[in-house]
Input
Amino acid sequence: MASPQSSFKYLEAAEQLRSNSGQWAVYESTGNVCVLAGPGSGKTKTLVTKLARVLAEDVRAPRSVACITFSNEAARELGRRLRQLGLEQSPRLFVGTVHSFCLLHLLLPFAHLAGLSLPFPLKVATEAQARDIYKKSSEKLRGVGQPTRKEDVDRHRRVHLDRDTRPWRENDDLTGLAEAYEKELRKQGLIDFDDIVHYGQRLVYEHDWVLKVIRAKFPVIAVDEYQDLGGALDRIVRRLAFDGGVRLIAVGDVDQSVYGFNGANSKLLEDLSNMSGIETIPLKVNYRSGTGIIEAAQKALRKDRGHESFDPDRHAFVKTHKCVEGLLDQAAYAIKELVPAALKTREGRQIGDIAILYRNKNVGDVAAIQSAKCGYSFSRIDNSAPYKKVPLTVWIEDCANWCVEGWRTESPPLRDLHWRWLSLQGVLSEAQARTARAKLTRFLWSNRGEGAALEFVHKLRAELLQVVEATRLELADQFAQVDAMQRALEKGGELEGNAKTELGRRDGSPNLLNLLTLHSAKGTEYDVVIILGLDQGSFPSPGWADNTPEKMDEARRLFYVGITRARDEVHLLYSGFEENKYGKRYYNGPSEFLRGL
Amino acid sequence: MRICRIAIENFANFDSVDFATDDCLVLVGENKAGKSNLLRALRLVLDPTMPDRERQLGLEHFWDGLGDEKLGCEVTVKVELTDFEDNDNLLAVLGGFLVSTKTPLVARLTYLYRPKAELKGNAPKSLADYEFLVFGGKDESNVFTSAQRREMPMDYLFALRDAEGDLLNWRRSPLRPIIEELTVKLDDTARVELQTLINNASIELAARPEVAESAQKVAKRLKVMVGNEHAISLALGLAPTNIDILLRSLRLLIDGGARGIGDASLGTANLLFLTLKALELDRTVEAGERSHTFLAIEEPEAHLHPHVQRLVYRHYLGADDDAPKNVTTILTTHSPHIASVAPLRSIVLLRDDPDDEATVITSAAKVSLTKDDEDDLQRYIDVTRGELFFARGIIFVEGDAERFLIPAYAASMEVDLDALGVTICSVASANFLPYVKLVGVNALNIPFVIITDRDPQDGKEPLAYSRVYEILHECMDDDEIEDDVEELFAQAETHGIFVNEKTLEIELFNAGMGPAMAAAFAKHANTWGKTRQGLMNEWLDNLTSLDETKLLKWVEEVGKGRFAQALAGRTSAAHCPDYIKRALNYVSNGFSTI
Output
């Protein structure tokens, strides 16, 4: 047999879905499905079990299944969950972001053949290069110090996929900047991150043969966190599913769409769920939160989604607290009162079961200082991460973890590290792959044990990565993130002195208090959630950050995401005023999101 | 799916060959022309059972014409594939290897043997500095993996293999999957039923007094030797009786079950082997083990009766509707019986190019013919046992008359057509064009001459004018072709087309064959009375007085072929019509005017 990689563990896992009618319907589905998964509804479990079934029963080699996720972090988690069902990344299973899908499976194989007017060989600009090029091209066009940010131009490029339509033409400012920027990129022989998806989408749209080949290669495509993926992916997916006959398994939650500033559009998922030719299955049972939290969350959202708790009798509540002295007071109250109280409420609860959430980094700083003062070690995840999680950096983290302890427990498994190492290098012949595997194994084996992360990354780079860096130009942007990783570990960097174990640890250990932005909190869950800074003008901030109805809606969804992270308790803290950096107070009352809770 | 193009450089007999192919490939060529090497080249790309150390070539595998320059050269084998879009599995594999995105898609696989990349252009010191790559598309880092190869493998049946041995060896037997399928399919009731039948037969047999007695004999002696204590109970029976083991012991029997394969003739064993192979290929596709097979059979004629050869390969080559699906059949053959049933476009000719010490490969895959012409040609090739494909040169003639006379004239001019490998082909009309397309430079590229009648018409150009014009049109641009009748015919001779003044029989008469013709009439004409004899004598006395119409009428009466046959014994170089003489000189000059 052409070795169908299958494990029968999914049959056991499937038994756990049987009693939930929504989950079971997904498991039994044979056509396109759109799964609208509320918070805590077991969507990941449902998705991985379904994927395992598809791989075992529906798709055989040489055809494959693609599972597209929002971030590399999410891809890693999904990979871990699939491994528990006995499924490894392999030529039969792609798990990755929309960018890696477009690069690996559309641009690299087809861009040249399709005659796209891109510089070949494809080389992806590093973030620094892209910034530099933007600065140069925009200042040439508009003069030094021109005010338009690159993010806005990028969003404009992301949102308007058809370049010959009026919205693209009518916005002279952004369009002009975008075109000048792209021209300069090409001149330097580069494409950028957004080009990858843009041209991926064009390949699928403009060339029927590409559609045919993708359909042959991936008869089934799953998309997780659909609401956070922008218009380009939505177009790719629709074209594949409705014109190409690819079977689609889309999973998402309209209410948890919080990346509008990035070009995401929650409406895309809603539209998809209303299309004919696709079965929409809501998952309404919440396995995470108690009834008190679920009801408050729906009120906060101002929508009744009919969600219900799996365990309705469990005691769970949402409580607001006024701290009259401002943000500092909120942080102090949270850490001195609420955290110790929460630890006492339930036996066995650990500090790691508690999370403090906030909207932006500044609030995070206050919380961090306060918890340090009170002697709580903490793990902090915000947007100010010192390097990005790209497949290469995530792989390096996992390699480090394997060396410390993972080689004893097979977590992550060596073969998974092998596979990811090989796939970074494109397709290798068996002999080349064998050599590459042996080299990696030798390296990891001789670097076992705890040690400084910096030294480890240096060595890895010198002994293994150098060759790849020289030959795989399309990885240039990922190597820039390895540079950032190294800088952060060096003297004076944010991660100075980190040990291998600490590299890439996401979920803090049970002994660390969790400090996260609301955006970073997506996909997590804690016993107790404390949200700081719920003052009108700060969150939401109708006069500034949330100055349109769409942005206001998104801010509300962000609040909803925060509440729904909690199993047992939610504490919402406010002062009734916000303070600028000079200490001036603006009394706008508590956040409007608290009204009616 | 099918192979649509093969290109080889610097390998074995091949300096540089590049040819188009159709659904199947029938490789025709003399011994040592490189038929097996061509298969080997394909195996480098497609055969999953070929070990990688064999892909690491030796210097002896480089093209010999390279002489001392071998080290440093690259060996390449390119195989292009098309018509795979309807098969999802194949598209999944080949979709990453495209070289043409027009419909139908074309994918390319390349075997490349070259100095290691790490030498960075420095000269290799030995073959230890060489590496091989097998990749898809145009990017050499796009590896064609062995898992992908197993999806569309090449099955290679080498010449003179031991079909009988393979059939008898359970592990290798193509019968094995069929028995295994049978074992799985039997339901419990049937199993019990069969088991009972066998048990009963076994018990009955053992219970026969004669059988029991024989068993007793052994048992008694055993007891004498080791005593009661150590003796074990013995019986004779049919062994074994477990149903699964029994099924595995099933063998193909021939002649109504009287004999096993071991007693079959080599031919029968081969035939059975090929039958089972066809079934196995179907099964592997149905079971999802692979999506396509390139079935290469080397010299399949071995041990098969010509008639059976034709039937078996007509099946494998897809002439029938029940031809195996998802199979590309590739044969090498000397056998006219196989060549004659091969679809026209499957023919791939391998010939030595004496100037280059290399093999030249031509194919008929791209020849453009109307459906009718193609059917005509196919029938002609079938009837003539594909002799065209084995010829080193061809003389095309209009009919049987020339077929009898040309060899006779050649003999009298001491042009040994057999030694030259030249065959005479009668197209039974004046429609040479399809034949010319098939053997012309754009297809099989076999040298040829055409001998044809002028067929004059009153007040118009002779019929031969447009006939010749169309043929020349196949080998040159329109504006190079002469307009004037005589100039056109003169030009045609430089391309091997020889036109007479009128009609064969008139030319014969004028060349001095009159007396011989008179003798032939005397023997074969309906009447050969005084009047006719008188007329003939008159014509002989004064050649210009010949009544052409009358003469031709008499010939018709006898039948042109029969008449020519009668004349053939009386030919001589002195009485050979000029245009035939020129044509034969052209042939003996190696198909050239010089």
Notes: The first helix of chain B runs from residue 35 to 46.
